[in-house]
């Protein structure tokens, strides 16, 4: 009240003196406010964003700083894993929800160190380097979220990769203590070495309720198909040793066995194989003169001769991977890295990522019983297939085995594919190495359909303003019996098409589409009016067409041309007013992997009378530009998809010495 | 005055706000953090530990490489397994006797069917299954050489309330001396359990038999052991089968309706939850989801409030019309997990949207279903519309094509379903000579890919494009010789010269089928390429035997009296390289349907289309030799041998059945045998090549021609449909007969031919 009174008493004194000052006063006031706002904005947004990220990256902690949690003895133990669990019974899909990216969100629990009541840690190693790598890879990936409420999948930071270093009961208790455990729903555990002496279970022994298990060494009896994920046993050697990729081909040895602790029964069988086949088989064992340790892990011996491991694996076409006490063997990873085709002898073993990887193309699985027949079985595989398998083995290693990151993200992708099956990666995406993906052709329209004759085709005529010539084309085409519809693309914005009454009278529906810009790409726009599968694309100056000649494009490719044309080709075409046909040919060749088909002997399209100045093909620079086009398009597609063929299609009785009236297409070639 | 007051007030407010802005930074900061978190800019990542490099390994190298080893002997362990892992835990390793399938390949995999007893009632569907096995190349009537046994008792319908239910199965199978607790037995079943729970129970103890069952539940499915088969009706054709309904690709691919369902609604019992909810997504426009309560005897007893309205709406739409005009089709579970609807929508190219939790999809071992169907979740019914809307046009085209591929490869007839089941089991028994998933999931489907031929993809004619490789640059010529060698001017000598001159020819094989023994080596002219003479044992089918000597992918099959030019051979070979899965040849023939005789006809008239290219001069992939000999049944091949005729028609049938495409005719040549000129004129006008003193040439004989008419009908009968496809074009060199200088043409010789 007081202030307002003060203002009002002062007011009258000010106003008469400075009417303009008053305006300036407000302008200044507002600019101050504006400046203030900008300044605060800058202050708030810029420095703070640095500060807030600094919160998390700059506080570099040691693993030992993680909070210590003491487990009470009476703390609850989860139930043992339920063998009947499947995604639809033990997994809560509602947490994942529907999202446009079709990507699950994964939360990682912050690191804690669990100890029992006496202060003894639950694991002898704590967080291992591999598990740390795995978690940080997941945390850097698209899957990661730090918001526990939005997560679909939870990953505990308790390291259970190696069951030998765990205290089972206490680990289980620790799992149950996790804040979102909820009977293990949507929790994912990674384990590579399951089981312990004497009978070595094939799945992690830690009771884990309904948690999903990504395990190395599952057998068909413990693996819950469609729920668990079988993962490889990571070989730390692959981080230390860099084996360069070898060209596939025949190698010095045919079969190599490099594992050290092979059961004597197997070893006896292998010895017998060696006796029978001599030099082709190399049977290595541990070096007796070397003490245990890192050095001995990198050497193998045969009768006093020392070989480097894993380099020696590259010298063999096939490498034996036998089961030991556990089904999953780290040797598998070494063998794949060396591009050696693994021969897997481990009955009931679920191969790593077998849900998506086609192991038949990268390995040979032989029942243990048939160990003695191994040589003949392997000899019966064609050489070219062995080469392909070697390449495939190396590719599997590079993509899915080479690091903890690869293993972890592949596992998440597999689970993601189950939750969003309609966005799942295809067989080709999983199994074809990049070389094959580049050169191969996987068109969505792979099925050879022979279209029925009834629907006919749609003729698309691109025109600018040559009305007279256009009308002649229309009259000519309309005589074709299979014509279903005629579409005129009026590419002239300055002039409107002639009135309806002036158009030639034809028996099929005729539609005129006016375009917004004079672009040659308009020819291949997928107009809604095109209802037939076949499309005949012609220019308005082709009047020498006899009615039998048809040049088919496909509606689908029209669609692709507009929406899927790679790079900037489409813009390029529009800018240069040329080459739209070459671009189309590139596209079709790239999609189908086939050459176009030239029909009938026509080479000359244009009539001599049409030497009008506006005829595009007559432009001096036209030919030069077209060569330029081809180079440009080839660089955008990355390859040269066009194929050269020496054939063209003619009617069966073309140019035959035969009564004309019996031929279906007698007019062809008459011009 | 008033205006000024307003300005002052405004100014004050601004000042206050500014002050608040500076003082209340804390709130702002919190707000900001909340905002940025949601934009995903600042994530709390897994910490970058300072002592990361010092973390221990998860296992020592020694521990990884030196496996603790097994105490027990592997042999003992394997024996112990079969005692532990049986019945519901059966796997091939433990419940299957591999020793019964000792012999390699087809010989090792023989299927025996128990004879059925007189008073047995066998349902239509089971009769078809048994017929399919009996007619397959795996059937044996000798139980001692069998690897797999199939019951004669109808076990398809195990619903006790059903009329097809066969009682006392348990007692009867226990009486079989070969039962052996079900080992190596295959049991087919379509319906199990009964109202109200419809469990997987069959009502008898299957022991360790393999179960080929429809509506299998993932929980009861024994992976790698059981086979899930589709539910099919008793009207499902025995062989051949209808083709898919997709005849053309529409762009944009969406049809009138987006999603449709029309079916029963269960008022009580299992499966009612899913079907009761279906009406929620119905909008009467693009999503049509209709249910009716009117089924069964006493539906009115359980009738609920929605029934009348639903029944009314239900009558408004026609199922067939919806099936043809819908992009997606809902396939929810019924009482059991699978339904007829699944195969119906697969055939109709209406992409199935599955709502059947826990259903082990048919042949899930080998088929990649996620590329053909949308697997929904019963719990997420309300998300289905938005999911299917989000499927892009390109995916729709791809999914739709795949439904057709799978339908035609594995489901369109009982024959295919049964054979797929057998082939899957065979692939397990001979696991190192088996098909990979790529073979199962790409054209032409696993049944037409015989792994005994090769397990390498590039050895087949179908996968060149998918693997990004092209067929080899060379071919082998196989010449079928029947007349003895008497003079050096015989047509075969000329032919040898012509073929060996081709730069793509790497070897020539002469198949000696004459009564006289083959002439000595010196009789043959010197050749730039190796020449082999093999004995055909005077069988016509021997020309399509998979000779080991053929090392190239392309085979040029020739008759001894064929007349060709080298440039024609070269040109045809280049065309074949573009179409490696088809037959590429010179003389065409055609088939037609004769409505008067109600039979297929064969014609050698020059017409505007053709469907057969004679293999007297044709290129094709060598894999077709293998298929011809090992895929086709003995009955067809012996017909060919008996009549010494029709082998070329059969080959065309086979290749067209595999590719669904016509053969390719190249160049103008119609006559590939030397004839007096008067004959050519006759050929054009006459329906058949009548003989005029040319008895020695078999194909000039009218008898020969009639046999071919019979053949074509006999073959079509075995295939169950007419696989031949007509084509209207032939391929000529690009400048053929054009008005340009002859020097610019690569294939000058062809102009004169």
Quaternary assembly: heterodimer
Q: Could you please say which CATH topology of the largest domain in chain B applies here?
A: Spore Coat Polysaccharide Biosynthesis Protein SpsA, Chain A
Strand order of the largest sheet of chain A: 9-8-12-13-14
CATH superfamily label of the largest domain in chain B:
Spore Coat Polysaccharide Biosynthesis Protein SpsA, Chain A
Number of domains of chain A: 4
Number of helices of chain B: 26
Query: Level of helix content of chain B?
Result: 25-40%
First-to-last CA distance of chain A: 102 Å
CATH class of the largest domain in chain B: Alpha Beta
Average pLDDT confidence of chain B is 84
Radius of gyration of chain B: 34 Å
Tell the overall outline of chain A. Answer: extended
Question: How would a textbook summarize the main sheet of chain B?
Answer: 8 strands, mixed
Strand order of the largest sheet of chain B: 14-13-12-15-20-16-21-22
Number of strands of chain A: 20
Radius of gyration of chain A: 37 Å
Q: Pairing-aware structural class of the strands and helices of chain A?
A: alpha/beta
Domain count of chain B, please report it. Answer: 3
Sketch the major β-sheet of chain A. Answer: 5 strands, parallel
Strand content of chain B: 5-15%
Distance between the termini of chain B: 109 Å
Tell me what the structure shows.
The complex is a heterodimer of chains A (671) and B (753). Chain A has 671 residues and is α/β, with parallel strands linked by helices. Chain A has four domains: 61-234 and 404-420, no CATH class; 237-402, Rossmann fold; 454-556, Spore Coat Polysaccharide Biosynthesis Protein SpsA, Chain A; 565-670, Spore Coat Polysaccharide Biosynthesis Protein SpsA, Chain A (Alpha-Beta Complex), CATH 3.90.550.10. Helix content of chain A is 32%, strand content 13%. In chain A, strand 10 (299-302) and strand 11 form a beta hairpin. The relative contact order of chain A is 0.06. By secondary structure, chain B is α/β, with parallel strands linked by helices. Chain B is 33% helix and 14% strand. Chain B is globular. At the A-B interface, helix 1, helix 2, helix 4, helix 8 and strand 14 of A face helix 1, helix 2, helix 3, helix 4 and strand 11 of B. Strand 20 (647-651) of chain A pairs antiparallel with strand 22 (729-733) of chain B, so a sheet runs across the interface. Chain A: It is a single-pass type II membrane protein. Chain A: Residues 256-283 form a coiled coil. Chain A: Keywords: Coiled coil, Disulfide bond, Endoplasmic reticulum, Membrane, Transferase, Transmembrane, Transmembrane helix.
